[in-house]
Amino acid sequence: MNINEILTKQYLEKDDIIQLLSTTGEEMQMLFRKAQEVKFSVLDNYIHLRGLIEYSNRCKKSCLYCGVRSNNQNIERYTLSEDEVIECAKLSHKLGYGSVAIQSGERSDKEFIETITRIIKRIKEIDGGSLGITLSLGEQTDEVYRQWFEAGAHRYLLRIESSNEDLYYKIHPHDDRHDFHKRLACIDSLISIGYQTGTGVMVGLPFQTIDILADDLIFFRQKDVAMVGMGPFIPHPDTPLYQYADQIPAAVDRMNLTLKMIATLRLMMPEINMVAATANQTIDPLGREKAIMAGANVIMPNLTPNEYREDYLIYPDKACVSDKPDQCSSCLDLRMKSINHKILYNAWGDSVAFTKKREQ
Ligand code: SAH
After folding, report:
1. How far apart are CA 223 and CA 218, in angstroms?
2. CB 91 within 8 Å of CB 42
């Protein structure tokens, strides 16, 4: 089938998805333009912001790609104080970002759980609960997810990293702490508790194929998630997967593949929120803009106090590590205007897909 025909189909089958992910040159540009058109027709040209707070790089896991894995001795471990998190949240509010996203290495000790609960409640006290709260704090029990939901968090990001079990165990140790089925169960639990749930994968991993990536997109559709985050894999020298750095696609190809994943998913799930991940900008200075032009509609500007950012390097050379928040805010505004998008300030920017489903 030719690309034009696929681009007008109501429902994409796996073969169609594979064909779209394999496009190059002008056909790839056609895919991006179509995704943009679909996005504009359902979500307009609005961009939603979440002020990102990287709460702690202490982590009990050892994911084979991640720079904050517990076995990495080359970083200083930190945890922000409650007050530091609240200051970041207030800054997010002041800058008009409308929401915060709290991300962290994975911990499940009581102190961590209770501190997060208090932080959520304190953020909810800022200006009468005007800030939306997204969490990205890894795998937890149902009870903990419920406790944080009841405290006021309403969105949760938990990337499956790969929906292919074999690949999952090539990029994670195969043990109790890294259990593919447990991660799947966590996603189900988040959805059933009522979170706007986001998942996602890294793109350009060693051993990853187009076939696997097509299945990832089908997985997101099957789970009917509200949000998706996908970014290029960036090999980190202090991690085991770095040994395959010369066997993965070149940066420009990982970037294009990520953009094709975003664009194809926009056609499959027009109303979801999709983030233009910072990892895009790390391998291409215009990466975030390109992700927006391919169908993404959310950006997570970093609000972590600068002195800690160097230690939250999940991948190397992370973009904007030395930017000050207000510089970052005006820079983003200009960057979005330059590509005909408009940041929607002072709004939660919930997933339209989720809101509609709830109203049904
Ligand atoms: N502990 C939390 C947050 C993880 S960090 C959790 O488990 O969900 C957020 C995301 O960064 C991860 O889900 C992963 O997809 C991405 N990431 C980690 N290392 C990366 C790398 N080397 N290159 C690109 N993305 C990476």
Report:
1. 9
2. no
**Residue 272 to residue 226: CA distance in whole angstroms:** 5
- Residue among 60, 66, 69, 275 whose CB has most ligand 1 atoms within 8 A, to mutate: 66
Q: Please tell me if the CB atom of residue 187 comes closer than 6 angstroms to any atom of ligand 1.
A: no
- Report the separation in Å between the CA atom of 173 and the middle of ligand 1, taken as the mean of its atom positions: 15
**Phi/psi of residue 348, nearest 5 degrees:** -70, -30
Listed residue (338, 224, 342, 271) closest to 43, CA to CA: 271
N- to C-terminal Cα separation, the chain: 36
Please tell me if the CB atom of residue 138 comes closer than 6 angstroms to any atom of ligand 1: yes
Q: How do the pLDDT tens digits run along the chain, 360 residues long?
A: 899 999 999 999 999 999 999 999 999 999 999 999 999 999 999 999 999 999 999 999 999 999 999 999 999 999 999 999 999 999 999 999 999 999 999 999 999 999 999 999 999 999 999 999 999 999 999 999 999 999 999 999 999 999 999 999 999 999 999 999 999 999 999 999 999 999 999 999 999 999 999 999 999 999 999 999 999 999 999 999 999 999 999 999 999 999 999 999 999 999 999 999 999 999 999 999 999 999 999 999 999 999 999 899 998 888 788 888 878 888 999 999 999 999 999 999 999 999 988 887
Which element (helix H / strand E) includes 276?
strand 273-276
List, as own/partner pairs, every contact residues 328-334 make where C-beta atoms lie below 8 angstroms and the sequence separation is at least 24, other chains included: 328/301, 328/302, 329/95, 329/97, 329/301, 332/49, 332/299, 332/301
Q: Partners of 178 in the beta sheet?
A: 175
């991300």: which residue's tokens? 103
CA 268 to ligand 1 center in whole angstroms: 24
Q: Give the whole-angstrom CA distance, residue 251 versus residue 98.
A: 33
Ligand 1 centroid, distance to 65 Cα (angstroms): 8
